[in-house]
């Protein structure tokens, strides 16, 4: 049995999607970020930077969503792809670039508009470039790393925030094709609804 410490955010959804994909049972322990529960001393013992997600399995806990996905891929023997270097490369691109940059775009463009014109413009442009670069790559690749893998599971919940990005996902045909295909997977639909409150991946208009 796995225990996932999470709130309904893209980084946490990566893990619930993977747990559904490998058909493992898991309990979600809700860490309410708005209430600052990530800063509780007990939680800090398993998450030194006070971030979700954290996964508990048997006698160990793991923080950092990329590390958790690799752990689960090794545990299950699934979704690391035939070429693990390729999968790791795209997973790390999500962890080190796509996630952090789109996260800044959320902050400046959506949650705090009007506070910094520079921040808004900088991260809007970067978000647009990320859409374009992913679209280019997906123009001759079905998935990020050949087969459907933890790299796609890591990236999907970030692109699923497209309604707040205001970039216009529908202009990027290859990225939209990839997004729609993943959004139809039963495990993705179940895992996306991490808190079981009926949340579904947003459709592309
Ligand atoms: N690199 C980390 C990032 C984790 C992260 O930023 N989590 C956010 C939610 S998506 C969080 O816990 N934020 C709480 C805070 O910053 O106080 C990972 O991928 O696990």
Q: Domain count, please report it.
A: 2
User: What small molecules are bound in this structure?
Assistant: glutathione
User: Roughly how much helix do the residues carry, as a percent range?
Assistant: 40-55%
Largest sheet: 4 strands, mixed
The percent range for strand residues is 5-15%
Reading the helices and strands in chain order gives: EHEHEEHHHHHHH
What is the count of β-strands?
4
CA-based gyration radius? 17 Å
* Termini separation: 38 Å
What's the average pLDDT?
97
Strand order of the largest sheet: 2-1-3-4
Shape: globular
Low-pLDDT stretches are none
Provide the structure class: alpha+beta
- CATH A-level architecture of the largest domain: Up-down Bundle
Mind telling me the CATH class of the largest domain? Mainly Alpha
The CATH topology of the largest domain is given as Glutathione S-transferase Yfyf (Class Pi), Chain A, domain 2
Q: How many helices?
A: 9
Question: Can you lay out the helices and strands and say which pair or pack?
Answer:
Layout: E1 2-6, H1 10-21, E2 26-30, H2 41-46, E3 54-57, E4 60-63, H3 65-76, H4 84-111, H5 117-138, H6 150-159, H7 162-165, H8 173-183, H9 186-192
Parallel strand pairs: 1-2
Antiparallel strand pairs: 1-3, 3-4
Helix pairs in contact: 1-3, 1-6, 1-9, 4-5, 4-6, 5-8
The structure holds glutathione (GSH).
């Amino acid at each position: 049995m796995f225990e996932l410490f999470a709130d309904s955010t893209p980084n946490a959804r990566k893990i619930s999607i993977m747990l559904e994909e490998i058909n493992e049972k898991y309990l979600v322990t809700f860490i309410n970020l708005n209430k600052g529960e990530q800063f509780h001393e007990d939680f800090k013992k398993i998450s030194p930077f006070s971030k979700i997600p954290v996964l508990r399995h048997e006698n160990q806990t793991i923080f950092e969503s990329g590390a958790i996905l690799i752990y689960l891929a090794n545990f299950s023997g699934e979704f690391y792809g035939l070429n693990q270097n390729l999968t790791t490369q795209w997973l790390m691109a999500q962890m080190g670039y796509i996630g952090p940059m789109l996260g800044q775009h959320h902050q400046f463009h959506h949650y705090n508009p009007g506070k910094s014109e520079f921040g808004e413009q900088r991260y809007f442009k970067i978000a647009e470039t990320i859409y374009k670069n992913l679209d280019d790559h997906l123009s001759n690749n079905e998935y990020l790393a050949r087969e459907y893998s933890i790299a796609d599971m890591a990236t999907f919940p970030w692109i699923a925030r497209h309604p707040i990005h205001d970039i216009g996902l529908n202009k990027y045909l290859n990225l939209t094709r990839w997004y729609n295909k993943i959004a139809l997977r039963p495990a993705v639909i179940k895992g996306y609804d991490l808190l079981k409150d009926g949340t579904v991946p947003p459709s592309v208009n």
